[in-house]
Protein 1
Amino acid sequence: MPRVAILDDYAGAALEVADWSPVQARADITVFDRHLSQAQAAEALRPFDVVCTLRERMAFPRALIEGLPNLGLITIVGHSLPNLDLAAATECGVAVAHSDFASPRFRSVRDATPELAWGLMIATVRNLAEEHRRMREGGWQASTGRTLWGTTLGLLGLGRTGKRMAGYAKAFGMQVIAWSQNLTEEAASAAGARRVEKAALFEEADVVSIHLVLSERTRGLVGEPELARMKPHAYLINTSRGPIVDEAALIAALEAGRIAGAGLDVYDLEPLPADHRLRALPNVTLSPHLGYVTHEMLGAFYSDTVEAVVAWLDGEPVRIANPGALPRH
């Protein structure tokens, strides 16, 4: 029977949230509930015909793809996977099947990330993580938080998620300003925000929340100069991608108390190493890339994955990102 690997299923949810029976009837499925290093993946995945990934949790560089002789299909979430070498997959005859965000199954779950972002913001400005820790340890309150009403939210990016954040902000009585490379005053106004220049956003905002796609234009977009413009009582929230922020500059600002704090769901390296400096900072609220991780969203992701695997087993692959890939079998 073909062998199928489900990677990085940290919460053990993959087989629960979607119906895998059409695959289980025709293939042997193995679930990996921990992250594999590149060396571990090269060894552990050698027998598999199909590998199912979840967002960018696992990188597939050329060396890894070329070292998996049985591999015929990789499934990905979204239309592309930045840390997958698509050219190498094509040359090796490995089809890459993407998911379909236009599918009706995704329409009711697209608020997962903005909801998490807003919750992380509240937790950050109210020091909830530290107070929770103190309560668990038998203590009581030792900090004062901030009120959002009447403050200014600065949105880096005003796409689908940013627009939802703007709506939440209005309900909380916040003023909203926004900036991105292509944002117009008209588009910002239509979303309930005021367009400002990038420098002004960092100077005026009491909370800066990032909602941009990681690209060469946005990598390192928030660095020491931007952080230096922020108010001493301001907070930075990032639920987009870690490398948009210069991590070293952020740590320096947090350690020096140049900004009040940060709420982070994404990091340069994931999973975040156990000894990482961010884990030790009391003015940082951390979550392990939970933005899209809900029962409903994972159900949509894995339902697409099942559909793609079954189609490949039938010899009629769907949603192939590299149609030039030659079949191995």
Note: The first helix runs from residue 14 to 17.
Protein 2
Amino acid sequence: MSQVALVFPGQGSQTVGMGKELYDNFEAAKAVFEMADQALGFSITKMCFEGPEEELRKTFNTQPAILTMSIACYMVLKEHGIEPNIVAGHSLGEYSALVAAGSLDFADAVRLVRKRGQLMQEAVPLGEGSMAAIMGLERDVVVEVCQKAQQEFGAVQAVNFNCPGQIVIAGQATAVEKAVELLKAAGAKRAIMLPVSAPFHSTLMKPAAEKLALELDQIAVRDAVIPVVANISGQLVKNGDAIKASLVQQAANPVLWEDCVAQIVNQGAETFIEVGPGKVLGGFTKKIAKDVTNLNVEDLASLQKTLDYFKEVR
């Protein structure tokens, strides 16, 4: 049987109601939500299931909510005998991947990502930073145009290399707007301003990264028992200290998702399961590695479809 990769989504995939079907039908999922509530000292379960959406969208709530939902899905998959050969996660999703790989305890991870969200929001006051998705330009063109814009207008850089033809830029709000104009002039098909509250993965996040390092020093980061592909390098990482260092760097450095997927394929994975809310990563994977099988697990229907697929191939 082909190797299986589990990939975990990041911010932006959250929806009110996420996880409720699995919570209602599987004790394994319910236990994860209950553990999260206990670790955080408030009901992230209620926020996931009932919202309100504006609360769920706040980065310090979004991050623990998506992590909890993703690990609930993972535990249900595990209960059905589906174990990964390799894992990765996009930005916040890297923390979910590390829980699945045995490097982080779930309770530590859920508290850590809530703190991460708070630190990221504090690093740049609301309204001062922004992000935009750039469609239809080559990687080197986006990087070059951002460097020009940065010299003239302030901090802006390419921060998410998601897939061919989709790169996200981030920085100071005015610099991002000017860079968007220049990128359109350089031939970008579309540029979409993203509804985010901070310029994630840009150099403006350095204060958050420094404080995150102190938080990480207080928890156990073990060697991974399953290979993990790191956002910052697109390379395999297993050693606990290297994982800790990569998480610190990740906060203020670009996410090389296209490289991560290429590495997973290079390691022999032919089946990708997106574990958690949404199908964003599946869309990226189709553009990076056209021959792999894409599945996802976020509710009963998608779980059943995934389980049926494995019954056929086994």
Note: Residues 3-123+204-313 form a domain with the Malonyl-Coenzyme A Acyl Carrier Protein; domain 2 fold (CATH 3.40.366.10).
Protein 3
Amino acid sequence: MSKWLQSGLRRDICVIVHALDDPTGQRLKRDLEARYEDHVRPKQFYGALDALVENGHLTREADGLADQFALTPAGERALEEHAAWLRERVPERD
């Protein structure tokens, strides 16, 4: 797995980008905070977003006041590999 997805925060950002139709930075942060039931520091959150963009897992496009994010093919692969790894180790139970 790419070292850039070793961070749980970065993996969770990718999961939410994958799930949303309109993944803006504000929406991603709000969804993470709902998931964690806690405040995510802006510096930590935007640092993780920047790292994902810089390392080719996400793209960022300006769209008016909000930036839109999308998974790149490399980001999709990394997310799929992580999901497969989880399925191997956490199988569904009857």
Note: The chain has one domain: 3-89.
